[in-house]
């Protein structure tokens, strides 16, 4: 650049020098993310200079990595020195952490007698960045960096990153759920990392969660799902979570970017954290990091057959050397009874209750009652008070035996369900419920579609055409038809998920023709799909056929009226009826707010409104002008309510004045 080629350099050379002042400078990574549309997100850089004695700082504008360089650091230095609001002077000493930057500045500023020094840390930079982080991310908990754990080095983190990438690519959540508790029987390792579950099935965030013991795991689940019914106190748990780089702590993101650590996917940056009983966050030391690395490497090399064996060994090489890992799923080695599952806080799927109905049907087929009184007496004697495990008439045909395994699967959890479903198909490939179970445990829409399709075909084969003709109109009342109905409903829902709405509607309508009483609640998903397809007349007929005084039905009627006649008096009447049923629904229909669906609700509540809006929103969004109309009606109603309140308040004041006279 040359000393005299820039007016600022001339100004710099003429500034007085404070030999007792030190300036610290260089490029810093800002604690925020920029996400340009259509481009990859990035952490911007900035040049930062800080005067140690004066306590002043100067930060450049954010820039990309391509824009940043030693020249920008020098530009920012000159801006700082020549700033009219600053005491224009040169420091006696300049500190940087980059030797290359020091050489560049020394050459450019050679004629100005400034001492240059390369140091390991710039304390003022750390303070400034911590302040920026606190300001920009005030609602985000402060998390220690990955290198702050005892004995953790970049090379150890590199080994952890490689193991995590292998785990993510292996995707063990294809085979394991967060209910399949795995025990690491060897090596012993830290006590808090001896049991674990795999996360990722069912759209959960991918990763692993670690617990000291099985008891701690089940207590944690009780506290998470039934906070009022759990007397326990949460123990410390560890978790490896895979997330996009924009969602992980800045220190982790910097480590991965600066040292090119391995990742399996842009959504798969791994972070290992300890959650203490007080929810304080901690980082792993070398012992914890190596133990988790062993877990990840062993599971990434595990086959589905090894999982089903219940106990298996894997020889892996961690940062600390080779080790044999022994893993076991005790619930597969000794499957728990429904009673044991209940003690843990897991209760059987309601579909398992059909086992008693199937048993009853077999018993009555062999022992037909002579009269209605005889039937009541027989049922009371043989089935009242019986548990799900007790059968009066064991299944005899292959299909009955396979179906009975499915009923047992519905009373089981995790991998055991898949095992029982596969055993059922080995006995009878015509077992529709076995295909339903496999579909429910599939992680891709393609696999779900295949399994449900197989289930529908299996149900058609097992039932036969005569069954469809004989029982059409009350299909669900025949226990043997229900697996087929479940498979076809699942097929329709999957078709809907992949955008094949018209195909899904065909299945929904056929299911309703088979069983107009609609025990499966098909009408609740069919009405919005019909509206999305513009089949308002069909939707209106369905609403009339299943006349209900629910908010969903009222809002659907209002929408159909608006579609038919616009913002008419008829549409207004229907909307007012809907608002009386639940006035909170428009709040969620008219905003991008999408809170999680509640597990329970009361009529007229906000929770009910969340569920209603979730079902209604696609149809309202697909109707031109519907949201504007709804917003206008709500605004008018609110104005009228405020006017009424003012009128009441004025009347109250007038009465007080008259009374005062």
Strand content: 5-15%
Number of helices: 26
What is the SS-derived class?
Answer: alpha+beta
Radius of gyration: 34 Å
Q: What value does the average pLDDT take?
A: 91
The separation of the N and C termini measures 89 Å
Secondary structure: number of strands: 13
Form type: globular
Low-pLDDT parts are none
Q: Portion of residues in helices? A: 40-55%
Strand order of the largest sheet: 11-10-9-8-7-6-13-12
Major sheet: size, sense and barrel closure?
A: 8 strands, antiparallel
Name some characteristics of this structure:
single chain; 661 residues; alpha+beta; Nucleotidyltransferase, domain 5; eight-stranded antiparallel β-sheet; 26 helices; 13 strands; 13% strand; globular
What is this structure's SSE topology?
Blueprint (H helix, E strand, L loop, with lengths): L6 H8 L1 E14 L15 E7 L4 E4 L10 H13 L6 E8 L2 H10 L6 E4 L4 H14 L17 H17 L11 E5 L8 E5 L7 E5 L2 H12 L11 E7 L6 H10 L9 E7 L5 E2 L3 H15 L3 H6 L1 E8 L2 E8 L1 H4 L4 H7 L9 H13 L5 H11 L15 H13 L4 H13 L4 H9 L4 H27 L10 H16 L3 H14 L8 H10 L3 H10 L5 H15 L3 H13 L3 H5 L16 H16 L4 H35 L1
Helix pairs in contact: 1-2, 5-8, 14-15, 14-16, 15-16, 16-17, 16-18, 17-18, 18-19, 19-20, 20-21, 20-25, 21-22, 22-23, 22-25
Short overview:
The protein has 661 residues and is α+β, with helices and mostly antiparallel strands.
Describe this structure in words.
The chain has 661 residues and is of the alpha+beta class. Among the domains are: 7-136, Prp8 RNase H domain, palm region (Nucleotidyltransferase, domain 5); 146-333, no CATH class; 539-661, no CATH class. The chain contains 26 helices and 13 strands. It has helices at residues 7-14, 70-82, 99-108, 123-136, 154-170, 214-225, 250-259, 286-300, 304-309, 330-333, 338-344, 354-366, 372-382, 398-410, 415-427, 432-440, 445-471, 482-497, 501-514, 523-532, 536-545, 551-565, 569-581, 585-589, 606-621, 626-660, and strands at residues 16-29, 45-51, 56-59, 89-96, 115-118, 182-186, 195-199, 207-211, 237-243, 269-275, 281-282, 311-318, 321-328. The strands form two sheets. It has an eight-stranded antiparallel sheet with strand order 11-10-9-8-7-6-13-12. It has a five-stranded mixed sheet with strand order 3-2-1-4-5, with helices on both faces. A hairpin with a 2-residue loop joins strand 12 (311-318) and strand 13 (321-328). Helix 18 packs antiparallel against helix 19. 33% of the residues are buried.
């Amino acid at each position: 650049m040359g000393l005299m080629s820039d007016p600022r350099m001339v100004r710099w050379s003429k500034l007085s020098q404070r030999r007792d002042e030190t300036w610290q400078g260089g490029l810093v990574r800002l604690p925020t993310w920029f996400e340009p549309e259509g481009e990859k997100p990035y952490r911007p850089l900035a040049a930062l200079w800080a005067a140690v004695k004066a306590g002043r700082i100067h930060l450049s504008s954010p820039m990309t990595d391509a824009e940043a360089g030693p020249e920008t650091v020098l530009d920012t230095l000159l801006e700082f020195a020549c700033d009219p609001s600053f005491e224009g002077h040169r420091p006696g000493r300049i500190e940087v952490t980059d030797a290359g930057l020091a050489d560049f500045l020394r050459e450019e500023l050679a004629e100005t007698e400034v001492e240059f020094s390369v140091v390991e840390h710039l304390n003022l930079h750390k303070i400034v960045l911590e302040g920026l982080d606190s300001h920009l991310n005030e609602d985000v908990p402060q998390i220690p960096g990955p290198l702050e754990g005892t004995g953790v080095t970049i090379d150890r983190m590199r080994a952890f990153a490689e193991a995590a990438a292998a785990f993510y690519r292996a995707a063990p959540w294809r085979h394991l759920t967060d209910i399949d508790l795995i025990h690491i029987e060897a090596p012993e390792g830290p006590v808090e990392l001896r049991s674990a579950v795999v996360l990722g099935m069912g759209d959960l965030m991918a990763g692993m969660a670690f617990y000291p013991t099985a008891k701690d795991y089940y207590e944690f689940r009780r506290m998470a799902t039934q906070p009022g019914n759990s007397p326990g106190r949460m123990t410390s748990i560890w978790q490896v979570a895979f997330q996009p780089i924009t969602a992980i702590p800045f220190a982790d993101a910097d480590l991965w970017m600066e040292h090119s650590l391995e990742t399996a996917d842009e959504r798969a940056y791994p972070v290992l954290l300890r959650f203490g009983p007080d929810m304080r966050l901690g980082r792993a030391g070398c012992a914890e990091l190596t133990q988790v690395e062993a877990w990840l490497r062993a599971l990434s090399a595990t086959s589905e057959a090894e999982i089903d064996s219940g106990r298996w060994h894997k020889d892996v090489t961690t940062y600390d050397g080779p080790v044999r890992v022994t893993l076991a799923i005790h619930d597969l080695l000794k499957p728990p009874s429904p009673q044991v599952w209940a003690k843990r806080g897991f209760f059987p799927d309601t579909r398992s209750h059909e086992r008693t109905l199937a048993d009853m049907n077999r018993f009555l087929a062999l022992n037909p009652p002579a009269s209605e009184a005889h039937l009541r007496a027989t049922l009371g004697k043989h089935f009242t008070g019986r548990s799900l495990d007790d059968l009066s008439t064991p299944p005899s045909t292959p299909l009955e035996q396979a179906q009975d395994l499915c009923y047992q699967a519905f009373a089981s959890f995790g991998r055991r369900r898949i095992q029982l479903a596969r055993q059922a198909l080995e006995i009878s490939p015509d077992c529709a419920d076995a295909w339903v179970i496999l579909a429910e445990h599939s992680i891709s829409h393609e696999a779900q579609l295949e399994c449900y399709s197989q289930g529908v075909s299996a149900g058609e084969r097992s039932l036969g055409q005569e069954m469809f003709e004989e029982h059409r109109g009350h299909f669900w009342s025949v226990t043997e038809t229900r697996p087929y109905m479940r498979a076809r409903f699942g097929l329709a829902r999957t078709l809907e998920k992949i955008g094949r709405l018209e195909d899904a509607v065909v299945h929904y309508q056929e299911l309703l023709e088979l069983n107009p009483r609609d025990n499966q609640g098909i009408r609740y998903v069919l009405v919005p799909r019909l509206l999305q397809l513009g089949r308002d007349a069909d939707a209106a007929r369905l609403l009339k056929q299943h006349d209900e005084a629910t908010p969903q039905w009222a809002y659907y009627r209002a929408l159909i009226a608006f579609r038919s006649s616009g913002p008419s008096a008829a549409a207004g009447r229907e909307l007012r009826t809907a608002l009386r049923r639940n006035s909170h629904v428009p709040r969620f229909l008219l905003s991008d707010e999408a809170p999680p669906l509640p597990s329970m609700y009361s009529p007229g509540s906000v929770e009910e409104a969340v569920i209603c809006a979730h079902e209604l929103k696609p149809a309202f969004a697909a109707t031109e002008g519907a949201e504007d109309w709804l917003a206008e009606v709500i605004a008018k109603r609110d104005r009228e309510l405020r006017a009424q309140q003012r009128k009441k308040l004025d009347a109250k004041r007038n009465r007080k004045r008259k009374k005062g006279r």
